[in-house]
Specification:
It is built from no helices and 22 strands. It has strands at about 15-25, 30-35, 40-45, 50-55, 60-65, 70-75, 75-80, 85-90, 100-105, 115-120, 125-135, 135-145, 145-150, 160-165, 170-175, 185-190, 195-205, 210-215, 220, 230-235, 240-245, 250-255. Strand 18 and strand 19 form a beta hairpin. The radius of gyration is 17 Å and the shape is globular.
């Protein structure tokens, strides 16, 4: 993956832009401004932008079917009617804890949804990573401060994640049929002492991992064995995550939290 032309897709400033998700059936990319309680959408087929106001903070989504989205919020998982915008509860996740919210998430090839929580003020060890499949919620990892980089190898047999404060990208064997871990986590990339913090990650069809580096203005591209392949510079200081759009395009979300100048999605 080589550096190529970068354009601004949307000028909308996001305090904490996160969770980019491309729906090929709608040819639309969605992303969240977590702190503003908004889901943004850009329809490539019509070149139109829209915003959905949410009842609470949300950070990620998946698609259930053509009529229904699945939204990860600070109280859990909710279904969202594409036609009416109506919400319905699916699974409660730390709903009784007002100090935590949702953060990173990714769908496994089995249909499992790995989702995460963290303290609203990044309190140490306040968060966790969960596995949700067929109505069952399972806690996978506890005592996480800032969960990020959740993603999976194309065959579903390997999962990745990080706790941002450790600056270590972890890898763990997974069951391709269920998305559940089958072994103990181990360090794949030790980024400690280097510029930027490991944030959201995705995996390409070759199994290479693309990670946004918060504070470094770049995406790092790693081979499955953890070797750095190349670095892609982006015109924002705090990129948060990326998403593939078709075969030859990537969108990147970013955040202006803690900054005096605007940060954008590009």
């Amino acid at each position: 993956m080589q550096q190529s032309a970068i354009d601004i897709l949307c000028e909308q400033q996001c305090e904490l832009g996160e969770g980019p998700f491309y729906c090929s059936r709608r040819d639309t990319v969605f992303w969240f401004d977590i702190l503003a309680k908004k889901r943004h959408a850009y329809d490539f087929s019509t070149d139109t932008k829209s915003v959905l106001l949410l009842p609470e903070m949300a950070s990620a989504m998946a698609v259930i079917d053509d009529r229904t989205d699945l939204i990860l919020t600070e109280s859990g998982l909710w279904s969202l009617s594409v036609a009416t915008g109506a919400f319905a509860p699916v699974a409660s996740i730390e709903a009784d804890d007002e100090t935590t919210r949702s953060n990173d998430a990714r769908v496994h090839s089995s249909g499992a949804f790995w989702v995460s929580t963290m303290g609203k003020n990044a309190e140490p060890n306040a968060g966790a990573i969960y596995h949700f499949r067929r109505g069952k919620l399972t806690k996978l990892f506890s005592d996480v401060t800032i969960p990020n980089s959740i993603c999976f190898a194309p065959d579903g047999a390997t999962a990745y994640y990080t706790d941002n404060v450790t600056q270590k990208l972890m890898t763990v064997d997974a069951d391709p049929d269920t998305g559940l871990p089958t072994g103990e986590p181990r360090v794949l990339v030790d980024h400690s002492g280097q510029k930027g913090g490991l944030d959201g990650a995705i995996v390409d069809t070759d199994g290479n991992i693309l990670i946004a580096l918060w504070g470094a203005g770049q995406l790092n591209h790693y081979a499955p064995n953890g070797t750095l392949i190349n670095t892609i510079r982006v015109p924002v200081t705090q990129p948060t995550c990326s998403a593939f759009v078709g075969k030859n395009k990537i969108v990147v979300t970013s955040a202006r939290r803690g900054m005096n100048t605007a940060a954008k999605i590009c």
